[in-house]
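Why does this matter for the project? Reviewers at the last site visit asked to see concrete outputs rather than summary tables. In response, this paragraph embeds two records directly. Each consists of the residue sequence and, immediately after it, the corresponding structure tokens. Nothing has been edited or filtered.
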Amino acid sequence: MLGFTFNGHHSSEYEIYMRSRNRQLLPSIRQVEEVIPGMHGVYDYSSGELEDRIIEVDCAIVGDLRSKARQIASWLYSATRGKLIFDDEPDKYYLAKINNRIDLEQTINLGRFTLQFKCEPFAYTDKSLSFSTKPEVIIINSQGTYKTPFVISIKNNGSVNMKNIKILLYKG
């Protein structure tokens, strides 16, 4: 069953059947425009920055709907963004939170609802590298599609003198 993980819990724990409704290839580009009197069109100040991404997922549950609905509501509610991971892209995650009111459409033992996640514009990935010997040069290639900031964390599990470690960053 195709599903998703949000805030550390998989949709299958709540017996949710899901279908992606809208997983955008690219979020909206922030438009900053001004109308200048006497000028045709608008003056475009846009810098190419991206808006938050909206991901919509249609869901269905069967069985004891009211009890499941309360458990699902408790799981999905968060004042802050959490990791949203889809089963068909397990190496990527979005930082997301629920953006909509969740209405449960109920027919006997079948319940349907749509989740709308408001996410940061980019999908993220965590890469981990470990070495048992001292490498001379390490090249990390991100496979990303957009220039984004990154974090390098170094954990010394051995007896390497950390004073000898140098990190050189360059734009390739």
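We now turn to the second protein, recorded in exactly the same manner.
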Amino acid sequence: MKHAFLIIAHNNWNQLKRMIETLDSDLCDFYIHVNSKVDMPKNINFSESMRKSNIYFTTRIPIIWGKYGICNASFVALEAACRNGGYDYYHLLTGSDIPLCSMKELDSFFEANVFNNPSGQFKTNYISVGKPNARMALRVKCYNSFISHWRDENRITRKLATSSNTLLCYIQRAAGIDRLKNSGVDLYCGSSWWSITHEFAEYYLSKSAWAMKQFGRATFAADEFVPQTVIMNSEFRDSRYESKKGIHSNLRLLDFDGGNGYGSPKVWAIDDKEILISSKDLFARKFDQNIDIEIIEFLLDRIKEVERT
């Protein structure tokens, strides 16, 4: 198969470069979106040590935590990859992700599970899907305010922003405001990160304008609703991977319970080595070279060792 890795990045450039070099293969190419709100060092050349993969940098757009930017960037990267064509799978990652297997092992997994889904007609898509509870649904059904301040460094500002937004959402709900009421779709949610087939990728791109209109304004974390809502309201709904024990439906290992409590998952460390190498998932996040570079080097060296055998 041929794979396109769509990577949304904003920091830790050496970490990202090392990860890309490790996956370098004639089986894959890389499409990197760099947040336009950050400066990327000019002294890092991502392609200098690549021998087989191609690297493309996409059009840059601004990304602010909690706003539509991540969802929009994923559409930008996906469109760039689909325009080049020839890919069987598109994998959306962040610059802080690390693969838990070699490129050959990853490809073998997708080959072995091409039709591991109930649809009977479509190739398998890997998207985590759930139904939002009433409070979570307010992120979409109501107009959310002050999102830019929800993670403000000042604790008082942060508390005022989130509390005020919650109050305004409850007022809107009491007033009968529901932005999905006449949309004709059922709302679903899940992880922002996915691996999808070319056939669904083309359909998903066809919904980008609709997604912007429905989720682009005053929605909190639209990236946790858009892919799930699109696939579950389409003929692709039964093409999702039937996850087995120990494998998440989107093949990503994350630990939000050990995270910072403000929407970010745990940063994996060398003490988590056994958890990571025993996981059956294909990717894990998140990693930070400034917090624990040892675990990053361990995992990437392990992949290289597998590739040599």
